[in-house]
Amino acid sequence: MIGGDGPTLGVVGGGQLGRMLAEAAAALGVEVVVADPTPDPPAAPVARDALVGGFDDPETLGRLADRADALTIEIELVDPGVLERVAEEAGVPVHPSPDTLRMIRDKLVQKRRLREAGVPVPAFRPVEDEADLLGAIEEFGEVMVKARRGGYDGRGNVPVRSREEAAEALDAVSGPAMAEEMIEFDRELSVIAVQGDGEVATFPAGENVHEDEILRETVAPARTHDEVRERAQSVAGDVLDLMDGRGVYGVELFEVDGEVLVNEIAPRPHNSGHYTIEGAVTSQFGQHVRCVLGWPLGSTALRDPVAMSNLLGDVETARPLTRGRSAGEGDPAGSDDPRPARLTGVDRVLATPGASMHWYGKREVRPLRKMGHVTVVPTEGEGREALLGTARELTDGLTFADR
Amino acid sequence: MIGGDGPTLGVVGGGQLGRMLAEAAAALGVEVVVADPTPDPPAAPVARDALVGGFDDPETLGRLADRADALTIEIELVDPGVLERVAEEAGVPVHPSPDTLRMIRDKLVQKRRLREAGVPVPAFRPVEDEADLLGAIEEFGEVMVKARRGGYDGRGNVPVRSREEAAEALDAVSGPAMAEEMIEFDRELSVIAVQGDGEVATFPAGENVHEDEILRETVAPARTHDEVRERAQSVAGDVLDLMDGRGVYGVELFEVDGEVLVNEIAPRPHNSGHYTIEGAVTSQFGQHVRCVLGWPLGSTALRDPVAMSNLLGDVETARPLTRGRSAGEGDPAGSDDPRPARLTGVDRVLATPGASMHWYGKREVRPLRKMGHVTVVPTEGEGREALLGTARELTDGLTFADR
Asked: Which of A161, A181, A201 finishes a domain?
């Protein structure tokens, strides 16, 4: 039943994911209130209200819970314990469950849980000190050292190719870590997996292109064999079995010699699923709203092949991403040279048939900050390759004006 | 250029059209402020702000203009003179132009203008008194008497089939009127026509099903010959030539013996264009935002055949629509039996592949009030007939709970 005062979704985090969640919620008659430490975050203009307070602030999250019929998150930086407590006190459901958030936020715990359940993952081991890391290099050869907590868009991930690099890498991740065998993958894939009320669904596997460990493009369906795509969807389904609580999960995978390995899981709509807004019958954001409220899921079928390209702040002039810096509030390179975000070249995107501009409304641009994205669907039967080329070209043509 | 503080669109009217406009604007990075006499109107939860004040209130519209980079409307009840003045004082553009709004709001002036320009319209004549009306009956046979101003969803339209009905009809429309020959049409069509900055576009012709002169369903493309659809698009293009100011225009037409006649024009996104949200590459709301801001237009191509069915308040139990009642605030039968709007049967819509639920967030249901709509696109190659059947069936299955 909808209507009356209509359900209100309380969302921890008010970034672009919250904004797109609010856009999708509106069509379904669902109001959104967000909570974010930043005043007037990207979701604010389309949310009923934007509360200002920290992701671990019981008072702010308590106010959010009091206003909501159900709680969810759009950023993992929330404190699961606080979330659990405020939901309980307000008597509202929270999805995904705080336990799942706890499990996912620690990359070592996440990977162990996956491995125990028989989900294919790269080999890994915990790293407490240099001896552990040297042991991992001994065992795996080249490794990726990952901070167990707080990594984001590649921050906290440091490749280590020799014993000599070990000490510096540990310095950079500064804290509890793990080491994973370095995977020479053929392709990076991702599957948006959906856990509803007694039903599950997976979107077709997309193919991701990363640079500096930041997602640049996604094309769907992934340009690989049917069996690999099906395997990726099936593994993503297995991952859902381990997740407690409803919601949309982004499952990133490596394709290696026709097999897939799970790289990482995000307990929320994911950048690599933005293509679903125009590309699929139901968007990942619409699905997330349905999930959290316990409503029936929509179709995850693709309507057409589709390509999505991220619009990042000042890619060309950006200094190389400092690895291992501690996480900020959801943006890489947070402190570099912010200036008012004024985007030029938009007309070309708008005038391109099948291209959709998404601008997140961020007031300031910073190097490699996610500022928006462009999605391209076919208008004259274009295939994936052409769509991806167009999406890339269009975002390359978008530039930020100088101050 | 977008960004910085981002353009803000000031919209007179905060109903469902304003709400869907705000949803579309958000993706483009455009903020929306609405003004409406009703506090907390449907657009409020997704608008940056909702000002409360009359459609002819200079103070409210002045505040709207001060906050906006461009002004537009989502309801024709605005006073064009006031709109013109506040736009001028604030130095912001307003689209469509107040002159066009003036011309369109008077059905007689609108029809004259169309006829003068050679656009095919039904025969008509002005009606000041009973003698005029009897003369029209003499000339045309059965006629439709239309109030020159304030009609909405069939209000102000009275069919007159004999001389004996003339006096009562004039009583019902109560004011300056016109009489039009009664058209025995084969089909009702509509074309959403788009006037951008130096470019125009038309969406493919949709086919409308009205009952009690309220739109019930639209299916696109219209189920008629290619030549008729093309003719409808071409006539809608001719209509644009008469419109001063950018924006989306809803052009309703009658199909008669393979020819088309223009019935009415709405200077804004139109109910019969809601199918474009899921059915077309660019939605009518996205196009309207682009138009008003002078941005390039998007593709008007259909992605698939599509059917849309309106969800009206209490169709079954509604008393017959009283003809000729003066217009209220955009809802027919405004005074009948309002009660809290609580909708049941939604799960079936949500669970139907390809169906999209749109709920406008109105707090109260009234007989025949437009409460939402359901759009259906194919997921397995369904044709128009099947889509229309599904859309109808789904909205028929939606019922409002008793108090």
From this structure: A181
Q: Does B268 fall in a domain?
A: yes
Say if CB B36 and CB B18 are below 8 A apart: yes
Over residues B351-403, the pLDDT tens digits come to: 999 999 999 999 999 989 999 999 999 999 999 999 999 999 999 999 998 76
Q: What is the pLDDT of residues A381-392, one digit of tens each?
A: 999 999 999 999
The answer to the question of residue B113 being in a domain is no
| Total beta-carbon pairs less than 8 A apart between chain A and chain B | 153
Whether B45 sits inside 8 A of A23 (CB atoms) is: no
Which residues 314-343 in chain A show a CB within 8 A of chain B?
Answer: 340-343
Q: Which residue has the tokens 């949709």?
A: B206
**CATH number, domain at B154?**
3.30.1490.20
Co-location of B29 and B12 in the same domain:
yes
Residues of chain B with Cβ-Cβ distance to A302 below 8 Å are none
How many CB atoms are closer than 10 A to CB A38? Answer: 16
- Number of structural domains in chain A: 3
The pLDDT score that the predictor gives to residue B4 is 63
Q: Closest Cα of chain A to B363: distance in Å?
A: 5
pLDDT tier for residue B323 given thresholds of 50, 70 and 90: very low
- Torsion angles phi and psi, residue A315, rounded to 5: -65, -45
How does DSSP assign B285-325, residue by residue? Answer: HHHHHHHHHTPPP----BSS-EEEEEEETTTTTPPPPPTTP
Give the residue numbers spanning the domain of A174.
Answer: 123-181
CB-based contact, A5 to chain B, within 8 Å:
yes
CB contact under 8 A, A359 and B3: yes
pTM: 0.94
CB-CB: which of B343, B350, B400 is closest to A296?
B350
